[in-house]
Amino acid sequence: MILESIIVIFIYFLCFFIVGTYIKNNSIVDMGWGIGFVIVAWYTTLRTLNLYTSNLVITILITIWGLRLFYHIIKRNWGKPEDFRYANWRKEWGKLVIPRAFLQIYMLQGVFMFIVALPIILLNSENQSTFTIFGFVGLLIWTIGFFFESVGDYQLKVFKSNPENKGKIMDQGLWKYSRHPNYFGEATMWWGIAVIAFSSGASIASFISPITITYLLLFVSGVPMLEKSFAKRPGYKEYKEVTPVFFPWFPKKSK
């Protein structure tokens, strides 16, 4: 099942690479992130016919998350030019943009997708599973994460849709308690999924998934890039001083 999952993910991102290269817009890979997990989850579940409660619960949770994320990103990016990150890489890589994009954008995301999808892949590699009380704990953790990601994204969308907020820092709603509530939510969801998978019979390697996504969001592609892009905005320094970066908590009193 592991090898089959790798092949499915490779073909999936190869298709995105071909399209992205043809239209000269590598940021379309972002649109495929959520749906890719949905495909892997359903493929491994139906391929093995492991229709146990735990397997179906995780598959459904991944489907809910993946479809919402896909809708959110495609609605946000549709019709817009290539994202500034990919556009900068295109200029930086010059004549090597095609091979480097293939390896450093599409295939690298494929590697991360495989790692993050490990809970469902490993669970579907088992002959059977049992949904225990810890499965409900994992479900609760996932629900908390989904709340933070979906509500955080919605609040930010509403904030940005108001012309009066152009150039301002979002510091309302969940963003009052975390500078990146949506990223916190995404990491939390994968911790919940890993708990369900492990408690249902998957190996402890399931936790490689939430550890990886948490590390990426905190130290690589999530928080650091946004913090850097927001650094020069008016009011961000003050917002940063009183608001937790990732884990939600009550804001500090301003000095």
TrEMBL record:
Q: Which domain of life is it from?
A: Bacteria
Per the UniProt record, the lineage of the source organism begins with: Bacteria, Bacillati, Bacillota, Clostridia, Peptostreptococcales
Segments passing through the bilayer: 6-23, 28-45, 51-71, 101-123, 129-148, 183-201
Pfam families of this UniProt entry?
DUF1295 (PF06966)
The molecule here is called Steroid 5-alpha reductase family enzyme
InterPro entries reported for this sequence: UstE-like
Give UniProt keywords alphabetically. Membrane, Transmembrane, Transmembrane helix
Q: PROSITE patterns, from UniProt?
A: S5A_REDUCTASE
